[in-house]
Amino acid sequence: MRELDEVKARYSASEAVFVSFLGIPFTIQTNSHDLASKVRSYFSTWLSENEAPNSHVIYAFQGNGIYDQNKLLDVSRREGKRIKEAYYDNDDGRVVLKKRTGATLYIKDGERYLVGNLVLHLNQLVNVLDEVFEEDFMDRGYLLFHASAVADMEGRGILLVSASGAGKSTLALALVERGLRFLSNDRVLARFEDERVHLIGVPKKPRINPGTILSLSSLNHIISDEERSMYGALDKDELWQLEHKYDADVEEIFGEGTFTLEAMLSSIYILNWKLGHAGPKLGITALDEAVKMIRPQVLSLDLRRRQAAERLSEAESQLKSICTVAPVFNVTGGVNFSELTALILRREGFEHEHR
Fold this sequence. Notes:
Layout: H1 2-10, E1 15-21, E2 24-30, H2 33-42, E3 47-48, E4 56-62, E5 73-74, E6 85-90, E7 93-98, E8 104-108, E9 111-116, H3 122-138, E10 143-151, E11 156-161, H4 168-177, E12 181-184, E13 187-193, E14 196-200, E15 207-208, H5 210-215, H6 225-232, H7 236-241, E16 246-247, H8 250-254, E17 262-271, E18 280-284, H9 287-294, H10 312-325, E19 328-333, H11 337-348
Parallel strand pairs: 2-4, 4-9, 11-17, 17-19
Antiparallel strand pairs: 1-2, 1-3, 5-6, 6-7, 7-8, 8-9, 10-11, 10-12, 10-13, 13-14, 14-17, 15-16, 18-19
């Protein structure tokens, strides 16, 4: 790949950071001491002292990417959503441009090189690590859900499933505020085995919108007084749709040990509530209907995420098995996080949980 050859000729690593997530080791090679320091701070819970055998190696260079503007193809999103990335394929690899930040990712023979202003946009590097982490578990038969998840102190996990913008991140953090542990706010891996479902969270701080911050008093300090006034002046619909991401450091806000990466599935909640309706309602959902509603949020059924076509039937069988293990509740009615949090805690027998 010509572009990657030029990147390798231009940049070389001078420092390495080692991390391990649930036994999956990573080595981040970089040319920037500042970036290495930020990575160590972000992943402080999962740092390792030395490089482990069979470590995934990610090259992260502070600099400017190289790509052919004329070849780029936009990756479409649902109607109204801003295009976030574009890509093109060469004979031996793929080039991906992150349009908002200008970071450029090169994928060739399992190697990943990321180039950009990564000190300013650390989340681009975090996303690359997370994708490799997710693919590692997908190769072991886990499904990847567009979902949030929390767990109690005994490891019983709750999966919160919905399309973007339905409030699953806010609901997850509302439950954490009431004493549960945080697992993940946007991606969750799950696998059925031995009549149980193992949940895996993603090692990433939740990136949340202003609506989430204003909904929970424990998060208010993340934004300034001026931002609170500005966002607070918006009507509910505008605030609900607004995308402007802030990182929430779960353990700093809620206490050490609040962030966990695994649990066993206890229940599934599908968010189909709406603004402007009277309070939330829970309805138990039959198996076939549950599978139908959850299927669009199973990202590993999307061939774009490199799930082999011959494995689709296997993934579909996994989804059905997952939905048989735990009760699936359809959340309808109106959006009210306080009320739904109380309903879930009571139904799960977690009323005693409180932070």
